[in-house]
Queue: 2 jobs
Job 1
Amino acid sequence: MQAFGVKEPSSGTDTTRIRISTEKHDDHYIVNGSKVWISRTEHSDLMLLLVRTTPREKCAKRTDGMSVLLVELREALADGLTIKPIRIMMNHSSTELFFDDVPVPAENLIVEEGEGFRYILDGMNAERILIAAKYVSDARYFIERAAAYAAERGLW
Ligand SMILES: Cc1cc2nc3c(=O)[nH]c(=O)nc-3n(C[C@H](O)[C@H](O)[C@H](O)COP(=O)(O)OP(=O)(O)OC[C@H]3O[C@@H](n4cnc5c(N)ncnc54)[C@H](O)[C@@H]3O)c2cc1C
């Protein structure tokens, strides 16, 4: 299982407004901030986490300055990460995440610092198209089932 941490309370459709911050040390980053609506973190070993390595106001373009870190969730839980489940009627196992000085090894940086927005979009665009196809076919299936049941159902 894997988790994908992008969405924050202050950012949704506009991903460039993420605020989760990092401080770079010799061989690790220190992560502070929060994420919300992140699926499956209670059941995953690894999470791809989008962070700001440069504040938005210091970047030439607002899509610059974001990076992706691979977080070992069990290690992070023992070192400043809190996972809070959000109970909803949907099987995504949604959670809220709080990072309080969580160390992540510098070698867990995905490829290049500052290029994270492009890496995330590369996967996310394909994922969203797949999900849209799934829900369109789900909708067709449930409408057929409901219509067949309504036509066959015997009353009294
Ligand atoms: C069940 C569930 C699971 C999720 N799992 C994950 C996950 O695993 N990882 C993760 O990172 N995120 C996850 N998310 C978060 C999801 O990616 C966000 O909900 C999504 O990015 C939209 O952000 P938002 O909810 O803040 O909506 P908003 O950004 O507030 O958008 C609300 C509505 O306004 C519209 N809108 C926004 N801006 C504009 C604009 N400028 N012009 C016109 N219309 C606009 C949007 O299209 C939308 O219809 C999950 C969400 C849910 C509900």
Note: Residues 4-7, 12-13, 37-39, 90, 92, 94 surround flavin-adenine dinucleotide (CB under 6 Å).
Job 2
Amino acid sequence: MDTDQLREYITSFSLDKCAQGNQGYNRVLLQLFGYLGHGKSSFINSCKYVLNEGEFKRYSDTGHSDGGKTTRRITYPLTDTITVVDNRGCATMNSYETGEIFAQLGNLLPLDQEVVWPTGYQSIVHRLVEGDIDANYSDFVVPIFVYSVKKGITEEEVPEIKNLLDNARKLTGLDPIVVLTFKSQGDLTGVQAKFRNMGTERIFQLENFTPSDRLRTRARDQEILTFFHGVLKDVEYRMSEKRDPPRERAERKKFVLVFAHEMEQEKKIQALVKPPVIPKPRPRTCKQQ
Ligand SMILES: Nc1nc2c(ncn2[C@@H]2O[C@H](COP(=O)(O)OP(=O)(O)OP(=O)(O)O)[C@@H](O)[C@H]2O)c(=O)[nH]1
Ligand SMILES: [Mg+2]
């Protein structure tokens, strides 16, 4: 397909046209997740730039290279059917933050609100219960993991990332699609191979449009359009099966509750096994001497 055909396919995509109709789903929700500063917000800006074909704008707030800029989950509609969510990035996937990430990914929490990292199992449960007040059953969730080639992946980082991707797959029933940013600023082939070895089937790579690099070319447009085409083909495929939105939401909720509970148990065991911390003598200040 050339760029015009791709654009036409993407902008006219509707869940109503799927083999079995929309089955209760009316929106494709692309859920971006990943570590701080890997280019999630910039990816949204790039998507809007190419799909909406206006001037380059910073719709989604982008930060400095260390990240930590996005603290709210904000939705950005891209077409009548596709909306993308800029989830809050986290520094390392510690257990409670991971529970929160899964609650976000599973679309179990309200959108367009500040993300406060939970401090324990109870706070995750409370948030999930409150999330039921305005529960959403009509979003078809697609997990998108954004990762920077520039940051690279060490062998030590592989198990944590693999675990995260495996759980995202179990939670959503979809293989997370990996978007590699900063594609020309590191070992692209090496990073791709690491993700393939982790079982990732769909990997896209691009150099995001940024305020200082916003020149549109056919090749760059094609990268973004090809990404959406791949995503929507996967959605069409999954929508050809029999679906049950309320049941699928209930399954996602069960997954997050079990995950958070297991994390809580693990923490308790670790606390029992850990040797007691003997406080170091306080350094003497001038006054004490
Ligand atoms: N050259 C280049 N710069 C990029 C790319 N993607 C993001 N950047 C820059 O990297 C920095 C961080 O990008 P963000 O889009 O804010 O990253 P994020 O994942 O949203 O970060 P948090 O919201 O803080 O977690 C910004 O200065 C971007 O301009 C890319 O593909 N190439
Ligand atoms: Mg951001």
Note: Residues 245-273 form the longest helix (29 residues).
